[in-house]
Amino acid sequence: MRIIGLLTLLIPGIIGAIGIKLMRDSVFLIAQFPFAYLGDSAYVYVLQGVVGLALAMGGIGFVAGYVFYRDKKRGKVSERYQKK
């Protein structure tokens, strides 16, 4: 059961890390695999940055939501987040 929980957190964590890498590479004007074939214009780097932002927010948000749900279930969150 613990391996399922580990994979549940590991996969979105890796997706978030890929998103951060895509954002970093778009700042330094390095086009990565799927975006490198679109040409060499500024729109490619903007698109890569937006996709990287979406991946990073999705991955980090999933991990944060998972941890918050677990802590809420165990009663380790503030009173305003507790079930009434």
Automatic annotation (TrEMBL):
Record Pfam families: DUF2627
Keyword hit for Transmembrane: yes
Tagged with keyword Membrane: yes
Transmembrane segment boundaries: 43-69
InterPro entries from the UniProt entry: Uncharacterised_YqzF
Keywords for the protein's UniProt record, in alphabetical order: Membrane, Transmembrane, Transmembrane helix
Protein name: DUF2627 domain-containing protein
